[in-house]
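Technical appendix A lists one of the benchmark inputs used to test multi-chain prediction within the project. The record comprises two sequence entries:
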Amino acid sequence: MAGELLELGQLFVVLALTGAIALRLGLSVIPLYVVGGVLAGPYVAGRLGLPYVADGEVVTLFAEVGIVLLLFFLGLEFSLDRLLTSRTRITRSGLFDLAVNLPIGIAIGLLLGWSVVESLLLGGIVYISSSAIITKSLIDLGWIANPEAEPVLGTLVFEDLFIAVYLAVVTSLVLGGDGLGSLAQSLAIAFGFLGVLLLAVQYGSRFFAGILDVPGQEAFVLRTLAVVVPVSGVALALGVSEAVAAFFVGMGFATSGHREKIERLLAPLRDVFGAVFFFWIGVGTDPTLLAAAAVPLVLAVALTTPAKMLSGYLGGRVYDLSKRRSLRVGVGMVPRGEFSLVIAALAANGATTVMQEVIPAFAVGYVLVMSSLGTVLMEQSGTLERLVFRDEDASESTGG
Amino acid sequence: MTVYESDLPGVGKKHEVDLGDGSRLVIVTHNSGKREVFRRADADSDSEKLFELSDKLARQVGTLLEGAYFQPVQTDSIETLLGENTMLEWVEVGANSPVAGKTLAESDLRQATGASVIAIERDDEVIPSPGGNATIEAGDTLVVVGSSDACRDALSTIRGD
């Protein structure tokens, strides 16, 4: 027990330190938490004979809670009404994004001789942009007040919805075992369970409102957790994506009229467990495996950076933005982060070496590169805009 | 005044106010309550951040801007638009006001004008939702709510013009 508590202590010391470094350098915390996990984990600190944090049960469980809370918050923020009110523009820019980026990832996997499921996992990892990093950069750079914020955030909403369906399917593909029969069964269970959950969300707003109708913060937080965690647990026990279950529960709570209070009170909890999740991803990453993932990594970075910029550009044009602002939308979509890592964590439960080792290592390398590259591109977008549009009239006036 | 409102999923809401000279004031209200205020010179420019305020500070600055504490214009009433045609007005009761010294019931404001007095401010004190037997004194500030016509009538009654 003492050893485990000490390990957990080491974990939080490293998280606090990397968090402080991120703040000092003005970087996103996510990649730094991952790096902190790699350095403090068995593959670096362990090999150097230093005290290290093992990939143990406690850390894994905390990380799992992190995934659940990350997706719960995504569901909480997700508004079907909002999607429906501007559905044409969100759907069109979202479809550009999906049609360009997911197939590229799948193609890279197939090109390397990976199976369909493995390629699909790769596709998901390169497709999904990081809401956390992008939103933070939009605010830091002041783009949040510019017209380009709307297509960026709108496309992210579309991605969130897609990733819920994607995770539901891919979890069954990864965990469902071999053979068409067991796969069909596992898909049936997944959609049965999630369907019931979705109905509960749709018609249970009185339940969600009632359960939170309690004075005092402590009871409020505990009651929220008492719904999210067990539902996710049941999902996982049935072989269904716990992340999607948490997403739906979040959508349910969003209708309770307590959304802002939940966000205020549970955000610190999400941040703590989320940080442990990113750290845990790092702990499980053997940096020497990055060599095995080098080829897909180089291919993916070289192909998906311009692909995201192109799909974002098209998305910006859907919103009637000028070419210059549309380019910014593309640049703004480049950072990848938390959800790529959630997919990688799912892949690690798979049966093949590619799923267990190559894809997680790939995802870590890819997120580190794309989160930094994306942030730098956003900061330097002025230079980029001048390079791309030097021949054109600078005062093009279709913006606004 | 034209105000454009849009959602910023995961962040909050954005309001853009046309300032009349082609530039826009952009107010980003974060879910956390924080307000960020930007100015965009024209459609092609980038928004320049002017300042940010906490939720509490924003409300206080907001009431200052609204003129709740000081009205520089030559009028002794303050008004706030609640809806399309509903106003909230603050009006001071002069020494010669016909309603000074009367109770709310005696002043007959609601019957005569359609506007209601929802609070009486007296020195540092506020009497919220005053009943019909509450007395109006010279020097009070009455907070009146009603349609703009009703408010105008109530104001002229209170001032005695």
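The interface with chain B takes residues 77-79, 82, 131, 135, 138-139, 142-146, 149-150, 153-154, 156-157, 260, 263-264, 322, 324, 395-397, 399-400 of chain A (CB under 8 Å). The CA atoms of residues 193 and 235 of chain A lie 8 Å apart. Comparable benchmark entries are summarised in Table A2.
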